[in-house]
Amino acid sequence: MNRINNLACILIITMLQACGGSGGGSSSKPPVPEEPVVSTGVFLDSPVAGLYFETETQAGTTNDAGEFTYIEGETVAFSLGVLNLVVPLAEKKLLL
């Protein structure tokens, strides 16, 4: 009888180990990348309207208040005719 109990225990332990975490395919979805936040900065000496600006993702001309759009961490380049100014890091306020 003792031998049958031992075999039963070994069989149960073996079956439980076989059913352990399979680590098979993952059902979790890949992370969704965050959408970048577009910020508004202002080019000031006095507000400069109509100044062309360009970043990696945005481009246009500054409005009447000298404002331009950018995403944090981008470089911004301004130009007026043949005059070009590149700012290594766009910020909320750029002063001359």
Helix/strand layout:
Elements (H helix, E strand, L loop, with lengths): L1 H17 L19 E7 L7 E3 L4 E3 L5 E5 L4 E5 L2 E5 L5 E3 L1
Could you please describe the fold and organization of this structure?
Helices cover 18% and strands 32% of the residues. The protein contains one helix and seven strands. The strands form two sheets. The chain has a four-stranded antiparallel sheet with strand order 3-2-5-6, with no helix packed on it. Strands 4-1-7 form a three-stranded mixed sheet, with no helix packed on it. Strand 2 and strand 3 form a beta hairpin. The chain is rod-shaped. The N and C termini lie far apart (94 Å).
Offer a quick outline of the entry.
The chain has 96 residues and is an alpha+beta fold. It is built from 1 helix and 7 strands, in the order αβββββββ.
Number of strands: 7
CA-CA gap between termini = 94 Å
Percentage of residues in helical conformation: 10-25%
Q: What strand line-up does the widest sheet have?
A: 3-2-5-6
**Helix segment tally:** 1
- Mass-distribution shape: rod-shaped
Strand content: 25-35%
Q: Which structural class should the secondary elements be placed in?
A: alpha+beta
* Major β-sheet profile: 4 strands, antiparallel
* Rg over C-alpha atoms, rounded to the nearest angstrom: 32 Å
Low-confidence stretches: none
Overall average pLDDT:
78
> Topology as H/E string?
HEEEEEEE
